[in-house]
Design goal:
The protein is an all-alpha fold and 81 residues long. The protein has one domain. The chain is 79% helix and 0% strand. The chain contains three helices and no strands. Helix 1 runs antiparallel to helix 2 and helix 2 runs antiparallel to helix 3.
């Protein structure tokens, strides 16, 4: 029971950090961590097929796509706008 509360609390904290972060790369890394924690939670709940899918798609493919998109955009500073 304590493990569930700890994992869910970490997911909540990372979700708030993702929304509050000014740096997009930090937000993507936090989203990837949320996906890995979700996969861990699914494993604990004995749903290994869902855990593998979450780890592969949520933490793997989505992270690569987001980082690729961030790298191909230009950053605007406050002086430019």
């Amino acid at each position: 029971m304590i493990m569930y509360i700890l994992i869910l609390s970490l997911i909540l904290v990372l979700g708030i950090f993702t929304l509050a972060s000014k740096d997009l790369l930090h937000s993507v890394i936090a989203l990837s961590a949320i996906s890995m924690l979700s996969a861990l939670l699914f494993t604990i709940l004995r749903a290994p097929d869902v855990a593998i899918t979450e780890a592969a798609v949520g933490a793997g493919v989505s992270t690569v796509i987001f980082v690729w998109a961030i790298r191909h955009t230009q950053r605007r500073d406050k002086e430019e706008s």
